[in-house]
Design brief:
The complex is a heterodimer.
Chain A: H1 2-14, E1 16-17, H2 19-37, H3 44-57, H4 72-88, H5 92-117, H6 122-143, H7 155-170, H8 181-195, H9 200-210, H10 217-235, H11 241-258, H12 274-286, H13 288-291, H14 295-313, H15 323-346, E2 360-361, H16 362-382, E3 387-391, E4 397-401, H17 409-415, E5 422-425, H18 432-438, H19 452-457, H20 460-465, H21 473-490, E6 497-501, H22 504-511, H23 514-518, E7 522-528, H24 532-535, E8 550-555
Helix pairs in contact in A: 2-5, 2-6, 2-16, 3-4, 3-18, 4-5, 4-10, 5-6, 5-7, 5-8, 6-7, 6-15, 7-8, 7-9, 7-15, 8-10, 9-14, 12-15, 14-15
Chain B: H1 3-23, H2 30-43, H3 59-74, H4 78-103, H5 111-123, H6 135-154, H7 161-175, H8 180-196, H9 199-202, H10 205-220, H11 226-243, H12 251-256, H13 261-276, H14 284-293, H15 295-301, H16 310-335, H17 340-369, E1 372-374, E2 383-385, H18 394-400, E3 406-410, H19 417-423, E4 427-428, H20 436-447, H21 452-458, H22 461-475, E5 479-483, H23 487-491, H24 496-500, E6 504-510, E7 513-518
The chains are: A alpha+beta, B mainly alpha.
Chain lengths: 556, 520
Amino acid sequence: MKSSLHQIWQRICHSSLSPLEVLTCLLLSLLLGQTIIHQASIDTDMAVNLSTALALLDGSRLYLDCFNPAWPPVLFLILPAAALARALHIYPVLLLKLYFYLLASLAIFAVMLSVRLRRAAAIESCLLSLAAPFCALFLLLTSAQFLGVENFPNGGQFFPLMVLPLLILQAKDNHEPEAAPVLSGLAYSLAAAAICFEPSFVLYYLLLVSFAGRKNLMRNCLPLLLPAFLLLTFALSYDGAWQNYLDWSVLINQLNFLGFNDYLYWMDKSPDLRKSVYGFVMFLVLSAPLLVRSVLSRQLAALASFGFAYFISSQTLLGQFTLPMLFFAGLNGLGSLVFLCRLARLHGRLKKLPPLNRRLGAKSTILVSLLLLSISNLIQSLSGQETVTIDDGAGTRAVVRSADLSIFARTVLNESRAGEPLFVYCWQARPGFPLTAQLMRKPSRFPYLYPFMAFHHGGAEAGACGILNDPERLPKLQSKFYSLLQSELSAADRPAFIFIEDGDIRQQFDDRGLVKILDSDYSMLASLTFSPEERKGHPSFEYPGYLNAFAVFKHR
Amino acid sequence: MKAAVSLILVFVLCLRMLVSILSHPLRIGWDPALHLQCAELITKGKIPYVDMFDVNPPLIWYLDTIPALIAAALHWPQTLTFNLCLLVVIAFCGLSLSYIINKKLAFEGQDLVLLGILAGALFFNFQLRYDFGQREEIFVLLYLPYLFLRYSRYRGAPIGTREAIFFGVAGALGICLKHYFLLVAVLVELSMLLAWGGLKKLLAPENYAALAFALLYLGHFLLTPAAMKDNYFNFLVPAFAKGYGFWDTCLANSLAAPDKRGVFYLTSACAVFAFMLCRRLPIFLPLSVFTLASIIPYLMQFKGWNYHDIPVFAGACLLAGGLLGFLLGETARLVKVRGMNEYLPLMVVVATSGFCLMNGMEEVASVKAERQFDLTRLGYKGSSPWSDIDSPFTDYLLKYSRPGDAVIFISNGVSPGYPLLTQFALAPGSRHLHCCILSVFQFIKEAEPDNAEARKLLSREPEVIEQYGIDIAARKPVLIFIQEAPVISYLNPYDFFGKYMKSYERLGSAANFSVYRRVD
């Protein structure tokens, strides 16, 4: 084992990298630096999933003791990271991010190897040579932790990255050498993991493999086995698991899709991401020269177009959902620019520019990357940003930058003790998450009240579509929903802090007597809002709908 | 593709459309009715932006003077005449595409695909209903032949100078209807230029003709009356540039709302397949770009109004038609029946004709079964389905007004004043055909910084109110409908009711409008 590792290390050190591969390594090292420095910064939905994963480790049963609109495969995907964090008492948010960083690095490494394997025609080499650095740059920019954006890691970011190696390998001609089994296996494994993020990625994946036609049909179906296996595992985990999944995840998501959220009809009620759509279209226009010449380019354009449908299906149209379409269209468009530059060069305009074909040693690249990592971390740590210590009350501590903590963090930290549960009753994940995960607090069994809007709408559209054949199903679920909330608010181990969103949610809580339960042991501490002063100094986040205030109740 | 087959398809679909138009003589959308009104006023010597106020650029009004004049000459309902003229434009589009496909693109040998695209280009018009006649639709109909001609040019087809100029001017006519359309045309051109190269192909007679027309149109403003120029460029355009955001929505409502997302799903699905096939079927490249690029103006306008995405829908129909044609062709190839390739286009057209016949008969039967409005009340022959004129205001208009009477709708939208005024042959009781400008002022007050430019624009608000008053006094409209929220709040600070409504009694309320009748 030791000698084979040594042999691998020797091979790496003696290999050489192209300038673009070197750039990729440097970008990855920057990303690692950012991940370590901004350890508390995490994507909201992934923070919710992390909390759910930790609850599963505590013995909770999914969709019975703890609820999440996500499907089981993504939770099982991150379970190892959550378990490792728990076991080693490492800050879970950081470990999860490092886990995904590793996945991303593997994906990009697989892209680099796939590209090396392809002896592509000049046209496709424009795209292929850009693939790895583009992936790294895409990840760095869309994470933008250094810009105070909470966007890493998320499914929209990772799916295109993780399926790209397979796409590149699939597009090769018959006269090109077969991929080594290790590379093939890696590509398929990454694709399998990518599908696990969301059910809609199954369709996305099927589109991707349809490009290969009947070639490798059996092998291309293999990645689908992973989410299928994880779903089966979940279905067998306890009695009624499958029905609970259908009720609390599938049905609610369908209802939310069919019964469009009233809050989103008005001006400014969802993030204005028109520039992302413009960018998507412009990149596709720019990729015109490659579209008529390169099969890979056409595949990327098709995947980008599907990404647009994925974006619309998200309902809330948040930034992370634009990422697949931007990734595929962007790679295509930039590849096309390279193609045009090469054409211009051939025709004499840029002849004097030296070609970028000088290779550099891998050892030097590794050393430079490590140096860059150290320097970037040193610079960041010298910037004198305020830090705060987070403690889960069970032996896990972390020192994080205050500026990375989500809104309302100061209030929670000042008014409660380490490890005390924190319930945020809000129909969206924000602002309860990533705050709850960042502060390592136990959330409500409903990390956010995602079924609320489905109940509010009533399911008329679903009934019309035949999805909700049993008219009693939704009222039963609604009744169970509120009784679960009631039971957790009446429980002995109630949280120190409860946030309840004003507006329809507060109204429902009042009508159903849930606020009354708090009268005996809680006092209303404050009304917290999303005012500019509150948000100042915290990461920006996208928030569809009305920016209602929160009534904050503190346990006496 | 046999030319006859495509011509039969165009004929059949236009005939089907004719049945629909003749079955609904009074059916028209609000914006087309408004533009028709402006056109009618122009034919009577009125000056745009002086004698009638609307912010839209005047090209559509100039075009609409054709149906307005024909209607006046033949004493036909304006709505019917407009729809028939639009049918002529649809036929022009169909025939032009048929001509270009058969004469310029025959070498591509994709009969069924091109037939499908042609069918798509005509089919989308059937889905528009109340948006039939919007500028977006006219843009598509006039631009498509130009797009196909440009595609033919890039593919090396020989094109005569006269036909190039003809289609260039037609294309420019469509593009100049709204400035946003230029972006779509530029992106489509750019995609073809990048794909098939050649600056020489860019410098072609049709492009020169298009440019000449555009410059002519822009240049005509220099010859317009000073008051028209002043009101348009120094008042309406800057006001709406600042205040059009009053009607803005959000991205989720624009793309993901249940009544809107279907178009975008169709677009995505068609684009996926079209891109995959664009090497084999190169026409799919500019069509896909056209469809996707049309999303940009839809989002730039940011109102979420369905008609803004007509070009997207039209493009998706073109792609869907082409893809269906491709699928049919591939199926025929696989099935390997002798002569299938020869006769399949004809079979498709025969099937379409059969469907149109059945569908047309169904429509006629259902119209006959509906309650009818007697057109003799308006001085015309025949009848129109009541549903075409049905509204909360119809009874008031029928009871208290006659054709030619002046009526005002003081509403911050084009509807409901239009199409009702056009349908009932009523004259506008004010130069302000709607009071969108008041909502624009409101938005400027609330959202714009308090600077000299904003103050200068807002200083026109009292003038607008006063103009309403002057017009009421001069034209003595028999009915005035005033929108309760938000319009009454705009009028109250000026004591509008005290000053200008003394000769009116309130009849009641309908759909957020107070109804007033003249009593002297």
